[in-house]
Design a protein that fits this description.
The protein contains three helices and five strands. By secondary structure, it is α+β, with helices and mostly antiparallel strands. A three-stranded antiparallel beta sheet has the order 1-4-5. The chain is globular.
């Protein structure tokens, strides 16, 4: 089980990668920063706000996805939700 130590919205000061889609988070862009611990392992997730909606819509755990998910499959699902108008 994971312990979340930090979960907040921040603004990028430099380029980062989204932990879900793998695409760039540009300087000045707002995103969710999540820092936690899973046993003795620490992790950090940076997630676009749009990407953050996908787990809520589909009902799955975004932290688990960042450890075992496929970025290509995630982008396909995100794009399906965009096309359907669910990510507005």
């Amino acid at each position: 089980m994971s312990d979340i130590l930090t979960n907040k919205n921040v603004k990028a000061r430099r380029t980062h990668r989204c932990s879900l889609c793998g695409e760039a988070i540009s300087p000045g862009e707002s995103y969710r920063l999540c820092v936690g611990r899973d046993g003795a392992q620490f992790f950090r997730c940076r997630i676009h706000h749009e990407c953050d909606k996908v787990p809520l819509i589909d009902g799955w755990d975004d932290i688990e996805w960042t450890h075992s998910g496929d970025e290509v499959e995630f982008r396909k699902r995100r794009d399906e939700l965009r096309a359907s108008g669910m990510l507005t």
